[in-house]
Design a protein that fits this description.
The complex is a heterodimer of chains A (376) and B (277).
Chain A: E1 6-10, H1 11-21, E2 26-29, H2 36-45, E3 52-55, H3 59-71, E4 76-80, H4 82-98, E5 102-108, H5 125-130, E6 139-141, H6 146-163, E7 166-172, H7 173-176, E8 179-183, E9 227-229, H8 243-258, H9 261-264, E10 267-270, E11 277-280, H10 284-298, E12 303-308, E13 310-312, H11 316-323, E14 328-333, H12 338-346, E15 350-355, H13 364-375
Parallel strand pairs in A: 2-3, 2-4, 4-5, 5-7, 6-7, 11-12, 11-14, 14-15
Antiparallel strand pairs in A: 1-8, 6-13, 10-12
Chain B: H1 2-11, H2 28-42, E1 49-53, H3 61-64, E2 68-71, H4 77-87, E3 92-98, H5 99-105, H6 107-116, E4 121-126, E5 129-130, E6 136-137, H7 161-168, E7 172-177, H8 181-193, E8 198-203, H9 207-211, H10 219-229, E9 230-232, H11 233-236, E10 248-255, H12 261-271
Parallel strand pairs in B: 1-2, 1-3, 3-4, 4-8, 7-8, 9-10
Antiparallel strand pairs in B: 5-6, 7-10
Classes of the chains: A alpha/beta (376), B alpha/beta (277).
Chain lengths: 376, 277
Amino acid sequence: MNKQNEVLMQGNEACAMGALSAGMRFFAGYPITPSTEIAEFLSAELPKINGTFIQMEDEISSMGAIIGASLAGVKSMTATSGPGFSLMQENIGFASMAEVPCVVVNVMRGGPSTGMPTRPSQGDVMQSRWGTHGDHPIIVLCPKSVLECYTLTVRAFNLAEKYRTPVIVLIDGIIGHMWENIEIPSTLEVIDRPKPTVPPEWYHPYENLPGGDIMPLVPFGQGYRYHVTGMVHDMSGFPTLVHEEVEQCLKSITNKIKNNLHDIIEIEEYLLNDADICVVAYGSVARSAREAVNMAREEGIKAGMLRPITMWPFPRFHLEDIATRVRTFVVPEMNLGQVYGEVLKSCSQKALRVTRVDGELITPDQILSKIQEVSS
Amino acid sequence: MMRTTETIYKYLRPDKKFPHVWCSGCGIGIVMGALVRAIEKTELSKDEVVLVSGIGCSGRMSTYLDFNTLHTTHGRALTFATGIKLANPELTVITVMGDGDATAIGGNHLIHACRRNIDITSIIINNNIYGMTGGQYSPTTPMERKASTAQYGTIEKPFDICKLVEACGATFVARSTTFHAKMLDAMILRAINKKGFSVVEAMSQCPVQYGRRNKMGTPVDMMQWFKDNSVASPAFDQIPPDEIDEQFPVGVLVNREEKEYIDRYRDIVKKAGGEVP
């Protein structure tokens, strides 16, 4: 890497810069540790480019505001941590149901409740999937580094626009607050909202297009007057209780994700070709896991790692494939086993967890000793 | 009469959205008519108007009207509206909320929208009850009135919505009733034309969930009560406080000039070195 192009940057700042480079021009948020630097940075940067920053009265309103701004055609984002993420769930469900693209950054801290504001945790993995009520789709991306805070935030906007859905960037507090030298990528793809191909009188904002294409969302005020609601709706957006339309509505919001797993799911495999033991790790823990795998290899233990970069939809098919080759799974995470449960669902092998909820990081040694335990 | 009908038809959604959900005798349709007549007078095109509603009986209004319409979550209409207005200040953004929607679950958003003085027109339809869920008491149900969750009468002091929003910084505040439909047209029109956060409290009757429980008679009787107890705003101020029983002022209650939020934000853009469009 050409060191001259490197900049020292914090994870939260990289996330904010990634959002700007993706074309985000509206941010609404409420102060909360450990995500606040994102809001602080954007409050200074957005006005320079005629973007909008607003500090709302709480996280409920922040989420409402970004959905409103997105409906007016502007790429929008909010950032928060566990307690605020809980408050956002109501309107995350709205964005899912009404198919409004937006990005929510959750820089995780210890929970439940006020928990440990300044200590790292990965306790929101399940909340990011199932925090809002009802069956709903969601995309969740999980960076392990400052660079990925940047690149995955760009990707989050791309996926949000492409699939008309809220996308969560789930960052460990430790990654959000970590400083690393990164080289800002100069050629990241940015997907903008597609234009409608039909005139207003033919436009149905929730129509399923042939080939699984998703109807573009036309910003308010452009001559396409339509209705948006959080109620179950027909293809025109109006509330319906007709059985066929209800089922169509709920299935189509889920299927658009389910039918595009190959595009949405991103994983990292490390030394898995000949591995007997697969460590499944994400976020900051993946860094310790990689080191533990290296240490195990030095001892002659055939260990490897699978890192879900897309956390949800969960890379179940990748895991099932790996399960045909490896003997055991080891799942280290800074919670009591949230991804561990998903691993158990996907494989019939033995799987062991390494958990830590004391506000400290999981060390390579901790993971190594579990690898040694299962290899003996 | 013919012209009124034409106006209403112009703004109703053309396709099969009826029958509406409102009960016979409900006042919300009168408020909807007033809104439509006010918008007609502004000469705004339908494309320029965004109507944002919350949840409850009033929340359904957005379904019926042919604007850019958004039916949000309970109490949150103003938060979505804030995002829309900031993202595209060219749009005329109007919210419709009920009393529970605006002042209970959405109370926090209401007071902060007032404080910011963002250019949104907020119509709060106050029928003193949660109608859709079956007549539970709301923050505007008067003391000792009956509700499905106040079988022995309410013991909570009600909000005076207009005083609340005035104290929180709304720059235009008006009140009218479903009896005073023409005044309601005029108040909504002035609110839309006002640059800043404006609130119109539209007092409305809920004969089914509120009137019946409290022996208030027919919908017409309830509207007659509005007529009998409303006092034009300047005259109301002349009534000695100890003579005020159930009377309430109607008309324009607050109209003050203050810099609007988006204009202030444009100053920030300039300070930051950005380009104001």
